[in-house]
């Protein structure tokens, strides 16, 4: 098969044979995009023939030969939507036909902001950014963005507690605290609220989700060590007038999203979104006396404003309120009788948080924006008889300046300030005086500045150099540089990116590791914990192929390597009754390769990916795999649309290789639970039927294989250890203790679901 695009002079010729039967004819014209010629990058051919041509430097093409007659002429180029035109070719003279192609926004033309903090097309970004649209997540509807990410390659929602089901997001094997979660580019979520920031955003208000894998601390600061997830919400202009989405499952889960747009006078527009989730069934299919899934009641209110200003200057303001009540534990637990007591074990978490964020473009000739966010998070939790009361308030502001220079340089610079107030009832905020213990909330200020220069050597290559300096009031000076280089072929069919950067993170054990609060293990903080630092590099290759049969194939391959110093790894093995926290004396590494393949042809679409990685730590010559981290994972989302019936079928899923698990074993007893998880896969199917322009119904089944982790345990062994003595009041030699930290996958089996959407644009 000939090579596509400019090396495909024959790919265009396949179309003329159909037209030219009785005599010779000449076909010529130009291929443009918004008035600019697509030189050397477009292919024009006659459908059903072997006749065609590639465009020259001025976007012109010429096809000769064959017989006159009616035919279909097709023009295509990587990154653009193919255009088909039916013409009648005359035997004499020149047949003129011109094409005007539009960018293909489904694959390579998406606008992204996460890599460079300004809007650029995904194809032109020097930083590799993965973009996922709401349609991708609709293939497997979930009650939260957290759960929806299970079909993104290299990203895994990790449940950290088999009782309360709290969790985090792993990117390339790195735990949730290494991932920064943004909403509209603002650092809303951190530390105490990693999971809750991904809950309660109405799906109808999400424009796209951008994911950057690898350190982004140069632009976003602490916590963007493993990567970032940026949830971009719709502007009020693009939001639907009314949108409602409700679905329920056979387990009794009910999720409802509702949104409405309102024009307020001539200068403002706003939309309001509400998300509600309820699950109240005490299900115990494994028979251990504990709930298999937590009971949850969540309500979230989201409101975003767009103010119309002179010269179309930007001014947006958004806010969100979230309240959640979740419980997991013994089936006979009663909130009024047992919360925080020692009679019946339960984990009960009350969460209240508020968020405010926005952007204001200053009224100057220069491109200056002030971006800001603030949030407050209050958590009232009990884990058995252990209480965890915490308050966190964060204020953030930054002034960003954009400047494009005629010399090909694009400058971005900013001044930032972040203030964090944190208080809880643990040793994390207590004075070291054990006799006269005084509560000492943590107040951290983090002023800093960043600058980056993106220089275009040519239309095919650009270099981005950036650095950031932060002054942490507790840990001093922190410097994080980065370097990104991008090259693409003349026809934009090949793109190669190289990235290098550093990151840092200030850890808080009690907000990040649920195991420090639940179970019977004693928490030991062996030293003053220093900030973790990392160095990362990755190479990314992207290939886009337009085939003769109108299929679009995308290949996205990445090799990554991250080296950590001062990493904090909980030690479960030194003493099975303790969890010890200390900075690693050696180093830790996350390395691997990932591959995404997407195919789009007529009504068929597939996105499949695999990631192979090795995540380990090494100290004193001893190398150890990181617990709860797979070495191989695969994801897929396959769908086919029957346009004539307005019907779509989606098949989604994932597969994970064995992980090392935190078992309780020492010389005194043996933990009968396996020290490694098995291979497992979660698979789902859905059918969606449209009724007119506004209504669609969907139904399907989740976890088709009915896989649950407790099905892989030896007979008579409980997933959580000794569930008969969850408070550890009567420990027996040789008897496994209660341990909810032994968890690696969802404990919810097969269920069916049905939903209904109503949308008015």
Describe how the helices and strands are arranged.
Elements: H1 16-19, E1 26-33, E2 36-37, E3 42-46, E4 52-54, E5 60-64, E6 69-77, E7 83-89, E8 94-96, E9 99-100, E10 111-112, E11 120-121, E12 130-132, H2 134-138, H3 145-148, E13 155-159, E14 167-171, E15 179-183, E16 186-189, E17 206-213, H4 217-220, E18 227-233, E19 242-249, E20 254-264, E21 268-279, E22 295-307, E23 315-329, H5 335-338, E24 346-361, E25 367-383, E26 386-404, E27 409-424, E28 442-458, E29 461-472, E30 476-488, E31 494-505, H6 509-512, E32 522-525, E33 532-546, E34 552-565, E35 578-581, E36 587-601, E37 604-619, E38 622-625, E39 632-642, E40 647-656, E41 680-691, E42 695-702, E43 751-760
Parallel strand pairs: 1-8, 1-9, 15-18, 32-35
Antiparallel strand pairs: 1-2, 1-5, 3-4, 3-6, 6-7, 10-11, 12-17, 13-14, 15-16, 17-18, 19-20, 19-43, 20-21, 21-22, 22-23, 23-24, 24-25, 25-26, 26-27, 27-28, 28-29, 29-30, 30-31, 31-33, 33-34, 34-36, 36-37, 37-38, 37-39, 39-40, 40-41, 41-42, 42-43
Find the CATH superfamily of the domain at 5-100: Carboxypeptidase-like, regulatory domain
- CATH topology (level 3) name of the domain at 5-100: Immunoglobulin-like
End-to-end separation: 44 Å
| Architecture per CATH nomenclature, i.e. the level-2 architecture of the domain at 5-100 | Sandwich
Summed up, the helix count is 6
Q: Approximately how much helix is present in the residues?
A: under 10%
Average pLDDT score: 84
Calculate Rg over CA atoms. Answer: 28 Å
Low-confidence runs: 1-23, 105-109
Regarding CATH, which class of the domain at 5-100? Answer: Mainly Beta
* Percentage beta strand: over 45%
Shape: globular
* Strand elements, count: 43
Question: Major sheet, described briefly?
Answer: 22 strands, antiparallel, barrel
Derived structural class: mainly beta
């Amino acid at each position: 098969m000939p090579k596509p695009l400019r090396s495909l002079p024959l790919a265009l010729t396949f179309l003329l044979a159909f037209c030219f039967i009785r005599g010779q004819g000449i076909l010529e014209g130009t291929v443009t995009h918004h008035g600019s010629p697509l030189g050397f990058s477009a292919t024009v051919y006659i459908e059903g023939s072997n006749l065609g041509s590639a465009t020259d430097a001025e976007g012109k093409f010429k096809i000769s030969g064959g017989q006159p007659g009616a035919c279909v002429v097709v023009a295509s180029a990587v990154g653009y939507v193919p255009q088909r035109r039916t013409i009648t070719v005359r035997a004499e003279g020149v047949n003129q036909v011109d094409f005007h192609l539009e960018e293909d926004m489904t694959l390579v033309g998406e606008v992204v902001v996460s890599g460079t903090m300004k809007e650029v097309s995904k194809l032109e970004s020097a930083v590799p950014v993965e973009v996922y649209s709401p349609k991708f997540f609709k293939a497997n509807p979930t009650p939260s963005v957290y759960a929806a990410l299970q079909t993104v390659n290299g990203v895994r929602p990790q449940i950290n507690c088999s009782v309360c089901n709290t969790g985090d997001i792993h990117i390339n094997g790195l735990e949730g605290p290494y991932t920064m979660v943004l909403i509209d580019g603002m650092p809303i979520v951190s530390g105490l609220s990693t999971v809750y920031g991904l809950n309660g955003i109405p799906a109808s208000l999400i424009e796209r989700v951008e994911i950057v894998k690898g350190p982004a601390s140069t632009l976003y600061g602490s916590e963007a060590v493993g990567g970032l997830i940026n949830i971009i919400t719709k502007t009020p202009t693009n939001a639907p007038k009314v949108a409602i989405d409700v679905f329920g499952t056979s387990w009794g889960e009910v999720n409802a999203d509702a949104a409405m747009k309102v024009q307020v006078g001539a200068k403002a527009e706003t939309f309001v979104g509400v998300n509600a989730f309820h699950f109240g069934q005490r299900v115990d299919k494994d028979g251990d006396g504990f709930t298999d899934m937590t009971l949850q009641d969540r309500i979230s209110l989201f409101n975003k404003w767009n103010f119309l200003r002179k010269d179309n200057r930007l001014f947006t303001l958004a806010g969100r309120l979230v309240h959640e009540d979740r419980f997991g534990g013994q089936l006979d637990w009663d909130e009024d009788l047992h919360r925080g007591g020692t009679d019946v074990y339960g984990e009960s978490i009350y969460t209240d948080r508020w968020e405010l964020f926005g952007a204001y473009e200053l009224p100057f000739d220069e491109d200056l924006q002030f971006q800001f966010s603030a949030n407050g998070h209050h958590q009232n939790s009990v884990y058995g008889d252990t209480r965890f009361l915490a308050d966190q308030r964060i204020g953030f502001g930054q002034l960003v300046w954009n400047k494009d220079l005629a010399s090909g340089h694009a400058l971005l610079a900013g001044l930032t300030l972040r203030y964090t107030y944190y208080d809880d009832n643990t040793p994390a905020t207590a004075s070291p005086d054990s006799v006269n213990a005084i509560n000492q909330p943590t107040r951290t200020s983090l002023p800093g500045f960043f600058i980056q220069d993106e220089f275009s050597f040519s239309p095919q290559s650009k270099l981005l150099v950036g650095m950031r300096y932060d002054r942490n009031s507790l840990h001093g000076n922190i410097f994080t540089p980065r370097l990104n280089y991008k090259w693409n072929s003349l026809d934009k069919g090949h793109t190669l990116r190289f990235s290098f950067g550093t990151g840092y993170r200030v850890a808080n054990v009690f907000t990040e590791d649920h195991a420090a609060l639940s179970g019977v293990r004693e928490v030991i903080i062996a030293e003053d914990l220093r900030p973790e630092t990392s160095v990362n590099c990755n190479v990314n290759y992207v290939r886009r192929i337009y085939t003769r049969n109108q299929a679009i194939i995308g290949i996205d391959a990445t090799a990554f390597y991250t080296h950590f110093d001062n990493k904090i790894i909980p030690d479960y093995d030194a003493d099975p009754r303790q969890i010890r926290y200390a900075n690693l004396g050696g180093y830790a590494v996350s390395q691997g390769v990932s591959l995404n393949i997407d195919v789009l042809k007529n009504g068929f679409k597939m996105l499949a990916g695999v990631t192979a990685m090795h995540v380990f730590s090494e100290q004193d010559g001893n190398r150890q795999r990181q617990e709860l981290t797979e070495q191989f994972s695969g994801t897929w989302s396959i769908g086919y649309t029957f346009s004539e019936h307005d019907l779509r079928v989606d098949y989604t899923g994932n597969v994970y290789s064995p992980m090392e698990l935190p078992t309780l074993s020492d010389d005194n007893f043996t933990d009968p639970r396996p020290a490694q998880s098995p291979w497992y896969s979660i698979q789902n199917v859905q059918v969606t039927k449209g009724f007119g322009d506004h209504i669609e119904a969907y139904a399907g089944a989740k976890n088709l294989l009915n896989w649950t982790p407790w099905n892989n345990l030896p007979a008579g062994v409980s997933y959580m250890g000794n569930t008969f003595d969850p408070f550890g009041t009567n420990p027996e030699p040789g008897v496994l203790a209660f341990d909810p930290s032994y968890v690696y996958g969802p404990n919810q089996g097969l269920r069916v679901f049905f939903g209904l959407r109503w949308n008015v644009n």
